[in-house]
Amino acid sequence: MENIIHVEQLRKEFKSYSSRSGLKGAFRDLFTRNYKIMPAVNDISFQVQPGEMVGYIGENGAGKSTSIKMLTGILTPTSGMVSVNGMNPHKERERFVQTIGVVFGQRSQLWWDIAVQESFRLLKKVYNVSDQAYKDHMEHVIESLDIGPLLDKPVRKLSLGQRMRCELAAALLHNPTLLFLDEPTIGLDVLVKLKIRNFLKEMNERYNTTILLTTHDLSDIEALCDRVIMLDEGSVIYDGKLAQLRSNWGEGKQIQFQFADSNITELKLSMVCNELPVEWVQGNRNNIWIASVKNDESVISALIGKVVAAHKITDIKIQEITTEEIIRNIYEEGIVYG
Amino acid sequence: MRYISIFFQYVAQYMKTRLTYRVDMVIEIMSDLLFQAVNLVFILVVFSHTQFLSGWTRDEIIFIYGFFLVPYAIFGAFFNIWDFNERYIVKGELDRILTRPIHSLFQIILERMELESLFGVITGVAIMFYAGGRLDLTVSWYDPFIFVMMVLGGAAVYAGIFILLACISFWSDSRTSIMPMMYNIGNYGRYPVDIYNNVIRFVLTWILPFAFVGVYPSAYFLGREEWYNYAFLTPFVGIACLSISVVVWNIGVTKYRGAGN
Amino acid sequence: MAKYIEMIRIRFLMMLAYRTNYYSGILIYSINIGAYYFLWGAIYGGSESIEGISVTQMTTYVAVAWMARAFYFNNIDREIAQEIKEGKVAIEFIRPYNYLVMKTMQGLGEGLFRLLFFSVPGMIIVALVFPISFSASIETWGYFAIAIIFSFIINTQINILTGVLTFFLFNNDGLIRAKRVIIDLFSGLLLPISFYPGWAQELMNFLPFQAISYIPSMIFTDGFAGSEATQAILFQIIWALLLIIPIQLFWLFAKKRLVVQGG
Questions:
Q1: Do both A47 and A131 map to the same domain?
Q2: Which keywords belong to this entry (chain A) (predicted)?
Q3: DSSP string computed for chain B
Q4: A106 contacts in B (CB within 8 Å)?
Q5: CA–CA separation, A137 and B70 (whole Å)
Q6: B171 vs C207, which has greater pLDDT?
Q7: Given a contact as 3+ CB pairs under 8 Å, which chains touch A?
Q8: Domain range enclosing A257
Q9: What is the mean pLDDT of chain C?
Q10: Could you tell me the CATH number of the domain that includes residue A147?
């Protein structure tokens, strides 16, 4: 199938000034300035197929926002090729944005002072949506998002969760084939988050809408996306299935022991299970120790057996490593590709 | 065609919000009137000490001022984007603008319009009639058409200059206070340019062509034939200013860096 | 005290950072002074002096009025209004300083920057281009120094007053604009007060505005000397003290309102 997003060697550089320190330095800055060129996005390439839901993750400053802004036509790339919905976003901006929907969690698309439906009406005009198309599509959207009762209220009177649902409806007003969501669930409570996730899933199933999602909340990504693209310092460091990421990096298990004796030490523990591949870390109390081991039944059973035989315990937990921990590990270790 | 219908949609929306804050609107109109009065006071005070300004009489200067108010009102209603840098660049509102399928400048004009300013047209025309009456000016059948052309030309000059100033923000992300200060310079186009020396006259005619918003077009209605050439250039200078500014704007948008986040 | 001085320093540094502002400012002030120079030349026509002010004095008046404006002018009215609207003022209340003093210090930081890097070099350039007379008497310079300090104080007080009024009005933009226009006209920036008809001068004696521009500029051009100058400065002092009253009152009301409404 044709790629809906095709990015090749995409790069964006920013010129940044560094100011000299102190009064004298500031005075010198008035006449000559130090500046350097920093690549915010460093030659990235990837493709997205229609109907995919892709999680786009990275730390602050990893180049997420900058690359999303290039994909949506807001910023002009320094070099490289970008084609979205078969168009060059920046060159054919006005025609292009007609085919996408954008939600910036921290920036409102709606007009602050006027009722939500007035905003919708304005946007309907702006996107040139016919009455019939609006009716067919939006009635469903309004119902699924349960925003019918909010339509005659001005945006400034809505709660964050209510506003966010309206924002989402506004972004879908022209029934775009591709939806960019930048931190759509930031600051929302669990119920609203669930509602939004279900709605997005439904949109994806019903209209085959492609969704590119950036978020700090990995549970959004776990709930919605099969695929993740991970950025670090302007480069793609992982692009693949979320499940694969988990099995490559999250193959281990963690076993947490709470001992009756608080004088337990790492030395005592490693003496008990010296031939097993295990790493010990102390937990948040000094009688709690966490063992990280490979996801292997015989190792896990052997470890538990030996520890329990040697020391009295009051509690034991077996945990799988969370995606969040996996990602933190990847960033800390800085490993590229697994 | 689509742009026109969007324009009216925005105007309707604007009226609705404005009518909810009626007190604001009254204060706004009052402060406009005050602003217009201040300049009139200046002229009146000055002419209590002198008869002529380089051969121009009090009523002629007042007439020029009245004319100036008309294009200025149109500029104020639609192109007064002095807070562009702060609102759209620093706060990153331009991101939102750029995700919509309408020309970015047109959207910003729609969002920032202040239709109250159009009251200045009434003040301006009233002042022109007052001064024109005292000067015994006659009105031909074609004068209203020329007037409209001159006014549109003048408004386009103002619009062009301020859009160009707004464009600076695309290249330099620092705050600038050029905009407020430029309003002062705009005032100098209201006085006969022959009082200035050549450098300033050149600046006001060709660099920051504010003279085409006041003295040049008014010279036509005042029957000052020595300035007719300049007077009839007004619409062309207006078109040129506006076109240049739109071209620079389109280039500027590609240099937009986005708000830092 | 140290924190207020630190604030002045920070603002000073901030001003240095905005160099586009700096260059464009110099250009625009020169154009302003130049245009007014010619405008006044035309107004004088052939006559030697109007209302006891000679052409050279008038040119000096215009130049110094604009250069002094660079020092006393600031945007704290707009800043205060903005911070009130965005609800940031509530946070300022829990900080260990007086918000209004802090704002004044920010204004002073900006003013000092412009005075040193802008007005002084600007004045020298303007003096090379236009016929401007500097007073030889040390007394005049002394009086002028005192007078511009008070123009800063009074202008800032008026700005604070307009800014704080945002608490009581829904939208303060119109008022701020109106204030700016009134100050331009009644402070003597555009026209020396002595040019106005007698009744208007009488009226303006009961208003603080001429303390901002007219008084320092007249002192600088030797238009006021000796007892006239001391009287003018006394006028400034009285207004600086009088304006404290409404500011404190409004601020008190504003605080109460903030407590009740919760920002």
A1: yes
A2: ATP-binding, Nucleotide-binding, Transport
A3: -HHHHHHHHHHHHHHHHHHHTHHHHHHHHHHHHHHHHHHHHHHHHHHTT-SEETTEEHHHHHHHHHHHHHHHHHHHHHT--TTHIIIIIIS-HHHHHHTSSS-HHHHHHHHH--GGGGHHHHHHHHHHHHHHHHTT----TTHHHHHHHHHHHHHHHHHHHHHHHHHHHHH--S---HHHHHHHHHHGGGS-GGGS-HHHHHIIIIIS-GGGGTHHHHHHHTT-GGGHHHHHHHHHHHHHHHHHHHHHHHHHHTT------
A4: 261
A5: 46
A6: C207
A7: B, C
A8: 251-320
A9: 87
A10: 3.40.50.300
Q: What is the mean pLDDT of residues B93-122?
A: 93
**Contact A27/C at CB under 8 A:** yes
Whether A116 has a pLDDT exceeding 80, the answer reads yes
Partners of residue B261 in chain A, C-beta under 8 Å: 65, 106
CATH assignment at residue A299: 3.30.70.1150
User: For A10-36, what is each residue's pLDDT tens digit?
Assistant: 999 988 777 777 777 777 777 777 778
Under the banding of pLDDT at 50, 70 and 90, the label for residue C260 is low
Q: What stretch of H or E contains A281?
A: strand A279-282
Q: Are residues A160 and A35 in the same domain?
A: yes
Q: What's the pLDDT at C263?
A: 42
* pLDDT of amino acid B175: 62
- How far does CA A50 lie from the centroid of its chain? 19
pLDDT-wise least confident of B229-238, C74-83, C197-206, C230-239: C74-83
Count of alpha carbons within 13 Å of C54, Cβ hemisphere only? Answer: 8
Query: pTM for the complete prediction?
Result: 0.83
Partners of chain C (3+ Cβ pairs below 8 A)? A, B
A232 with A280, same domain: the answer is: no
pLDDT for residue B62 is more than 90: yes
Residue C190 has pLDDT above 60, yes or no: yes
Are A27 and A143 members of one domain?
Answer: yes
Count how many domains chain A has: 2
* A151, B169, B170, B178, C118 from C21: Cα distances, Å: 44, 12, 15, 7, 11
**Phi/psi at C227 (5° precision):** -65, -30
- Mean pLDDT (whole number) for B201-216: 92
> Counting one residue from A and one from B, how many pairs have CB atoms under 8 Å apart?
67
- Residue B226 makes CB contacts below 8 A (sequence gap 6+) with B219
Q: What number is the ipTM of this complex?
A: 0.82
Q: Which of C194, C183, C189 is nearest to C54 (CA)?
A: C194
pLDDT at A309: 85
Task: Tell me whether residue A315 is exposed, middle or buried, using C-beta atoms within 10 angstroms of its C-beta: 0 to 12, 13 to 18, 19 or more.
Answer: exposed
pLDDT exceeds 90 at position C64: yes
Last residue of a domain, one of A247, A279, A303: A247
Q: Is A38 on the interface with C (CB under 8 A)?
A: no
Q: Is the Cβ–Cβ distance between C31 and C126 less than 8 Å?
A: no
**In chain A, positions 100-129, which contact chain B (CB-CB < 8 Å)?**
100, 102, 104, 106-109, 111, 113-114, 118, 121-122, 125-128
Whether the per-residue pLDDT at B184 is higher than 80: the answer is no
Do residues A132 and A270 share a domain?
A: no
Torsion-angle region of A8 (φ positive above 0: left; ψ -120 to 50: alpha; else: beta) = beta
Q: What is each CA distance from B95 to B21, B172, B258, C87, in whole angstroms?
A: 28, 17, 7, 25
pLDDT at position A281, please? Answer: 80
CA distance A71 to B99: 11
Q: Identify the domain boundary among A183, A217, A247.
A: A247
Say what the pLDDT of residue A251 is. Answer: 65
